[in-house]
Amino acid sequence: MSAPSSTRPTFTSPTKPLIHLERVNKAYKMGEGSLHVLKDIDLAIHEGELVSIMGSSGSGKSTLLNVLGILDDYDSGAYTLDGQLVQGLSERAAARTRNRFIGFVFQSFNLLPFKTALENVALPLFYQGVSRRKRNQTALEYLDKVGLADRKEHLPGELSGGQKQRVAIARALITNPKLILADEPTGALDTETSYRLMDLFRGIHQQGITIIIVTHEHDIAERTDRCIVLKDGRVES
User: Fold this and answer.
1) By C-alpha distance, which of 21, 80, 17 is closest to 233?
2) Rounded CA gap, 168 and 162, in Å?
3) What DSSP string describes 135-174?
4) Can you tell me the distance from the alpha carbon of 36 to that of 23, in angstroms, rounded to the nearest whole number?
5) Whole-number CA gyration radius for the chain
6) What pLDDT, in 10s, does the model give residues 2-51?
7) Angle between helices 117-127 and 132-145 in degrees, nearest 10
């Protein structure tokens, strides 16, 4: 499979932080008490980095990814994305920011089972109001970039796990995001398929797109340029 091409310049070295977290805290209400999940998180991720986030169950890595993806708000501190403070956004403003900046890849693929691979990839452009002809043409281009143009008419149930994840990656890329957030993207895949997927991520990263991968697998983390380890809601290393 070939790496997606892009109009972005090839990344050479970190410049300004795309993501900057300063003393970010997040707690969830639990009955009459609360669970403090993120504790004074300080973090900087630069444009073009390929980063993994590791930690045991309950360490806060999924919550951190939700905050980074503006799927969840935080309680205190400051989160700056591409120079803009992200805090207390309305649902519409949060959705608009996500659509402009972020592509998501999930362990469970999150493909619509009744839509073809082509239709699944084209879906973000549908929500942007792009015409059917244009979005299908663009979706086919991105399927080709992940090596699945010949599977465009297949439903998710007719694809392997690795093929489903490549469809999900093509869908994440179609809006030309600055940032891709991947939550355990290899968790449902065998080792060989996982490594091929990481090769695809590296090819995308070489085009200048920032990628953050949450994983519990050390061999996957070793294939990124930097690993951030969370423990009990804090950045350990």
Assistant:
1) 21
2) 10
3) HHHHHHHHHHHTT-GGGTT--GGGS-HHHHHHHHHHHHHT
4) 13
5) 18
6) 444 444 434 444 467 899 999 999 999 888 888 899 999 999 999 999 99
7) 130
The candidate with the shortest Cα–Cα distance to 223, out of 52, 72, 42, is 52
**231, 32 in Cβ contact below 8 A?**
no
Residues 6+ apart with CB under 8 A from 35: 27, 28
Q: 139: buried, middle or exposed (CB in 10 Å: 19+, 13-18, 0-12)?
A: buried
SS3 52: strand
Contact 39, 21 (CB under 8 A): no
- What is the full DSSP assignment across 3-39? PPP-SSPPP-S--SEEEEEEEEEEEEEETTEEEEEEE
DSSP class of 237: -
**Residue 121, helix vs strand vs coil:** helix
Give the separation between CA 65 and CA 228, rounded to whole angstroms: 12
d(CA 215, CA 228): 10
Q: In the 8-state DSSP scheme, what is residue 178?
A: S
Report angle CA 70, 53, 13 to the nearest 5 degrees.
90
Half-sphere exposure of 40 (CA within 13 A, CB side): 1
The pTM of the full predicted model, rounded to 2 decimals, is: 0.86
Length of the chain: 237
pLDDT in tens, 94-145: 888 888 889 999 888 899 999 999 999 999 998 888 999 999 999 999 999 8
| Distances, alpha carbon 12 to alpha carbons 7, 82, 162, 202, 211, in Å | 15, 18, 29, 14, 15
pLDDT of residue 15: 60
